[in-house]
Amino acid sequence: MINYLKIENGQLIPSHSDTDETVWLAVEKPTEEEVDQLVTTYKLPKDYITGVLDDNENSRFEGLHQNTLEKPALMLLQYPHATISPSGYTQLDTFPFAIILTTDGKVITVINNSADFLKQTFTTPIPNSELPIQESLILYLSWQISTCYNRFLKELIVQTNKLEGELKVSTENSQLYQMMDIQKSLVYFESAINSNLEVLNMLYNARIFTDPRAHLPKLHDILVETKQAATTTSIQLKLVDKVSDTFSAIVSNNLNNVMKILTSLTIVLTIPTIIGGIFGMNVKLPFANREDAFFWIFVVTTGTCIFVIRRLKKRNLL
Predict the structure, then answer these.
(1) Residue 123 C-alpha from the chain's centroid
(2) Which CATH superfamily is domain 2-253 in?
(3) DSSP designation for 113
(4) Contact 140/124 with Cβ under 8 angstroms?
(5) For residue 90, which of 160, 166, 200, 185 has the smallest C-alpha distance?
(6) What does the pLDDT read at residue 4?
(7) Smallest Cα–Cα separation from 157: which of 243, 248, 247, 245?
């Protein structure tokens, strides 16, 4: 699907076709016909588009060191997206996002999976900038991706803190599955953010920018945001690893405590069973001829149970 967008009063407006006013072609899950159409119309290398169809494609750039944009240039970043893991819990994956600069001053973005930050971008006014539209969009989209990582990281931190609060009473595997999904998300984040950081650093020396000094402040903000996400991911990954180890130990300990209590209760409940079995034998036994025999047997049984319970509690076994 190809969405044609133009700018009116700083706002992105959908267009039904590709016109001279079109500045952005947002392509999502392109078909073979759409890929051929874009390649033919804008004289693009086919791998600029088909590379995004591989979810494991790494961040890279091509053609950004041209003095003038004589052929299309590509900057490929990775963005985060929430999915459902095989265990049934929310997991954050990263997918490739291609930003293609055409020779006629337009921007083409290509994704193979939905992107929440793009939906927000379509409804948000483009910041006023004296830069050409291609430079403004490439910096604006890079900023949106960087802030998207930090937003998801905050959600992961909240989930981790919530799981920590459940440690005291946890004896189930569900929390372990959730912790595993958080670890997987952070591993994906660490790899993707570091790859993005390498590409963004290369923009400092990109020759296609008409005025390098003009884009440096915005690029600096993007790099600061990306480095913050990288640092947070690294720290959180180490913490989650420690919490996961602690989590496993606590779950095992909680299960041991439950088994300890059940075993102690079994011992206590065995006492009446033994005494009842003895006095149920068809032989001559003490108290057999007393009318209050049941009362005294009950007293002895109860006293023995109370004594055993106190001894078990004193030894922290109940």
Answers:
(1) 25
(2) CorA soluble domain-like (3.30.460.20)
(3) S
(4) no
(5) 185
(6) 74
(7) 243
| Residue whose tokens read 């927000």 | 120
Using CA atoms, how far residue 117 sits from 7, 134, 239, in Å, is 18, 19, 27
pLDDT at 10: 64
Strand 22-28 with 107-111, pairing? parallel
Q: Which long-range contacts (CB under 8 A, 24 or more apart) does 142-147 make?
A: 142/77, 142/200, 142/222, 143/218, 143/221, 143/222, 143/225, 144/117, 144/118, 144/120, 145/77, 145/79, 145/97, 145/117, 145/196, 146/196, 146/222, 146/225, 146/226, 146/229, 147/117, 147/225
State the Cα–Cα distance between residues 196 and 36, nearest whole angstrom. 28
CB 27 within 8 A of CB 109: yes
Q: Residue 70 pairs with which residues in a beta bridge?
A: none
Domain boundaries, the chain: 2-253, 254-314
Q: Which amino acid is at 37?
A: Q
Contact of 99 with 107, CB cutoff 8 Å: yes
CATH number of 254-314: 1.20.58
- Contact between 267 and 273 under an 8 Å Cβ cutoff? The reply is no
* Main-chain dihedrals φ then ψ at residue 13, nearest 5 degrees: -120, 130
Residues of the chain predicted below pLDDT 70 = 9-11, 14, 18, 20, 66-69, 123, 125, 127-131, 166-173, 205-214, 248, 288, 317-318
Angle between helices 174-202 and 133-165 (to 10 degrees): 160
Q: CB of 98 within 8 A of CB of 52?
A: yes
Residue 63 pLDDT = 74
80: three-class secondary structure by DSSP: strand
| Angle, CA of 29, 200 and 94, to the nearest 5° | 40
